[in-house]
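User: Show me a protein chain along with its predicted structure.
Assistant: Here is one chain, sequence first, then structure tokens.
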Amino acid sequence: MSQSLIFDMDGTLFQTEKILEISLEDTFDRLRSLNEWDRATPIEKYREIMGVPLPKVWEALLPYHSDEVRKETDAYFLEVLIKNIRYGKGALYPNVKEIFTHLKENNCSIYIASNGLKEYLNAIVNHYNLDNWVTETFSIQQIESLNKSDLVRSIIVKYGITTAAVVGDRLSDINAAKDNGLVAIGCNFDFAQSDELTKADIVINDLIELKTLLPVNKKDDH
């Protein structure tokens, strides 16, 4: 039976940490130059909420700013992130390409479901040639509800998936698996929270561990 794996991007396949700090610092420098910010860059706060859609990020980081300022900040941050990806300042996690090759050789389909925006995801996919392995990359922008469970459901429906696991580092990934009756594989990586990982069916510390876990079966509802 063929199997599908649906991967999160940030903090699961892509080491966002490597470009996060410099991109966020640059973005808040801009806000300081516009007299819209006068404190330290809230990097720790961002790490805590990593994984939520970007509009919600700016609501959290800029709670007292106007929607207009948030939108401008969002657009600028996206621009800086993409620039840093294209400059090669980011990196994939260890063994991404090795495990992708292994999955393809074992008749597994690979998808990406991310809270990242399309343009940002395309920059990563193109820079690292992930299309060599990945059937399709899905962005939260494609879903009106901005809910990852709904995003994963759209992949299941589009591709008629019956056996699959969701691989990710945050609660939204684990919930997306559970809400769709799939196996939840939690990644104990940079942004992972231990209390969230306890809700996963399986926890891994390196993507290469997927080699020994497959096939994983769709969870029995009983």
